[in-house]
Amino acid sequence: MNLKSILLSSGIALILAGLLISCAARSTKDPVVMLQWASEEFSRKDDPVAAEEFLQQALEMYRKKMDRLGLAETYRQYGLFLRSNAVSKFQKHYNTAGFLDESVKFTNRYQKAVEYLIKARDIFEENRKYDTLSTVHISLAKTYAHLNRTGEACDSLTKGMASYNAFKKSNPDMKEFHAEE
């Protein structure tokens, strides 16, 4: 083989490899699965760009379905995404390309996380989903702490405990597991 043939073969191989990778991209029409993938992308894989794409797709689907609890879970995940270490590691990308939610800037992402978490909190509250509501309050507390809003962080922790106690009261047969420490 001459050099030209080798380069042509290599070029074709690279193109085919690229096509295979794009074909292997995850695809689903189930917003629950999209939220699982989004969480995996920003919490374990440090790929916030892919995570936000899944979050946006889930938001769109839940809005079309008018599924309030689905929206609440997506808002919760969006808040966690904005506060994640993965997003922090991509500061240069977000300062250059921005977020898919154009109201979010890298500098206001914690405040926007609060806004998403509050939307989630309100829906979970109106639907009496106290188990999830308690985790939303804890997430709010952590986010307020990032913003140095100590009073609101403490208030959210107190509300998180109240939600957890309401959940326990409505589920008296629930078994609690405690760490040995």
Feature tags:
globular; 181 residues; mainly alpha
Provide a concise account of the structure shown.
The protein has 181 residues and is an all-alpha fold.
What can you tell me about this protein's structure?
By secondary structure, this protein is mainly alpha-helical. Helix content is 75%, strand content 0%. It has nine helices and no strands. Helix 2 (31-43) runs antiparallel to helix 3 (48-65), helix 4 (68-83) packs antiparallel against helix 7 (109-126) and helix 8 runs antiparallel to helix 9. The longest helix is centred in the N-terminal third of the chain and has 21 residues, at 3-23. The radius of gyration is 21 Å and the shape is globular. It starts with a helix and ends in an 11-residue tail after the last helix.
Alpha-carbon distance between the termini?
68 Å
* Major pleated sheet: none
Mean pLDDT: 84
Number of helices, counting only DSSP H or I runs of 4 residues or more: 9
| Strand coverage percent | under 5%
The topology string of helices and strands comes to: HHHHHHHHH
Radius of gyration: 21 Å
Helix content: over 70%
Q: What is the strand tally?
A: 0
Question: Helix/strand/pairing class, anyone?
Answer: mainly alpha
| Overall shape | globular
Instruction: Extract low-pLDDT stretches.
Output: 2-24
